[in-house]
Each structure stands twice: as structure tokens, then as C-alpha cells.
């Protein structure tokens, strides 16, 4: 790991210091260590979106409410963790797991940033491909947004994002890709 990534890990550890006791069980949930964890993730997201749907607020009010809830959670979690867990309960093994979580988050963040930079570097390296991809993605997103309710799109996106770590950890995506690659190929019609 490069020196820059090590510094990013240290900064993230310092930033998440109050959340460290909450992150250990959250890691278990996001990696599906129990069978019911995916159901809990989907149920919690469903309840959150049901609440947003029942409130039927306009866009700015919804953003404000979501911001208030996030700030409230950000205040309560460290406070509750400090009350429930004593500092002596933090062991070297938990510190190692916490550092592993931070390292994983930094790695995923850097992969996303690298992918974005690679995409935008296409503009200089291969402008035709860049514009084809940009226009295709924009048209597809515009068609989806006009055809499907935005809340449902956000709901599906939220579920996919929160289930993705467990999907990767269990190797489900790689299994599906290997099944697609092993599927019998349709012979192409050749004219002689």
C-alpha cells in the first residue's frame, strides 16, 4: 500500500474514532455473516423509503429531513457507544478489525476515484468512445427517470449499494459471471 493510502487510512481512522464500536457489528451485517442480514438490510431500507413516501414531502424538505436524520444518528451513535462499551473493552483484535475496515473503505474509495479518472481520461485519449458512452448513459438515465418513479429508482439503487459488499464477499457476482461465460454460445451464421 502506498504512503498516500496509509495516510488516508490514518485520517479515516481518526474521523471514524467515535464510530469504531458500531462499525464492527455493521461490518458483520454488510458482509452477511448471518443468513438474516440481507433481509435486515432490505427491511431497513424499505422502512426508510416507506417513511419518506408516507411523508410525501417535496424534494428540498426530503433532503432536509434526511440530513437531520443523518446528523442525529452521527451524534447518537458515538454517544451511545461510549455509554455501552467501556474503553477497556477495546482490544488489539478489535483495533485490527477496525483498521481492516478503514483500509477496505479507502481501497474502495480509491478504486471509484480511479474509475472516474479513467472514464474522464477517455475524453482526451478516445473522444469518440467517451461521447458514445456519455450520450448512451445520459439517454438511458433520462429514459429510466421518465419511465420509472424516482423514489423507486433511488430505493433500488440504495438496496444494490448496501447489498453489494455482501454480494462481493460471498462471490455471488463472480458466480453469475462465470455462469454467463459458461453458457453455450450460439453459433454465428456464416455465409460462404
UniProtKB/TrEMBL annotation:
<keyword id="KW-0812">Transmembrane</keyword>
<dbReference type="GO" id="GO:0005783">
    <property type="term" value="C:endoplasmic reticulum"/>
</dbReference>
<feature type="transmembrane region" description="Helical">
    <location>
        <begin position="151"/>
        <end position="167"/>
    </location>
</feature>
<dbReference type="Pfam" id="PF24456">
    <property type="entry name" value="RHD_RETREG1-3"/>
</dbReference>
<protein>
    <recommendedName>
        <fullName>RETREG1-3/ARL6IP-like N-terminal reticulon-homology domain-containing protein</fullName>
    </recommendedName>
</protein>
<feature type="transmembrane region" description="Helical">
    <location>
        <begin position="61"/>
        <end position="85"/>
    </location>
</feature>
<dbReference type="InterPro" id="IPR057282">
    <property type="entry name" value="RETREG1-3-like_RHD"/>
</dbReference>
<keyword id="KW-0472">Membrane</keyword>
<feature type="domain" description="RETREG1-3/ARL6IP-like N-terminal reticulon-homology">
    <location>
        <begin position="21"/>
        <end position="178"/>
    </location>
</feature>
<dbReference type="GO" id="GO:0016020">
    <property type="term" value="C:membrane"/>
</dbReference>
<dbReference type="InterPro" id="IPR052114">
    <property type="entry name" value="ER_autophagy_membrane_reg"/>
</dbReference>
<feature type="transmembrane region" description="Helical">
    <location>
        <begin position="36"/>
        <end position="55"/>
    </location>
</feature>
<keyword id="KW-1133">Transmembrane helix</keyword>
Amino acid at each position: 500500500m502506498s504512503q498516500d493510502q496509509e495516510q488516508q487510512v490514518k485520517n479515516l481512522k481518526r474521523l471514524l474514532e467515535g464510530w469504531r464500536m458500531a462499525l464492527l457489528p455493521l461490518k458483520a451485517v454488510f458482509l452477511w455473516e448471518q443468513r438474516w442480514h440481507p433481509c435486515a438490510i432490505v427491511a431497513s431500507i424499505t422502512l426508510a423509503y416507506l417513511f419518506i413516501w408516507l411523508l410525501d414531502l417535496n424534494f428540498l424538505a426530503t433532503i432536509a429531513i434526511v440530513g437531520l436524520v443523518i446528523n442525529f444518528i452521527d451524534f447518537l451513535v458515538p454517544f451511545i457507544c461510549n455509554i455501552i462499551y467501556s474503553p477497556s473493552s477495546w482490544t488489539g483484535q478489535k483495533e485490527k478489525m477496525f483498521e481492516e475496515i478503514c483500509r477496505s473503505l479507502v481501497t474502495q474509495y480509491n478504486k471509484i476515484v480511479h474509475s472516474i479518472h479513467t472514464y474522464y481520461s477517455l475524453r482526451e485519449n478516445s473522444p469518440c468512445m467517451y461521447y458514445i458512452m456519455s450520450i448512451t448513459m445520459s439517454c438511458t438515465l433520462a429514459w429510466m427517470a421518465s419511465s420509472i418513479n424516482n423514489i423507486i429508482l433511488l430505493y433500488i439503487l440504495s438496496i444494490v449499494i448496501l447489498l453489494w459488499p455482501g454480494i462481493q464477499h460471498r462471490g455471488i457476482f463472480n458466480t453469475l459471471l462465470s455462469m454467463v461465460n459458461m453458457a453455450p454460445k450460439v453459433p454465428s451464421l456464416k455465409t460462404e
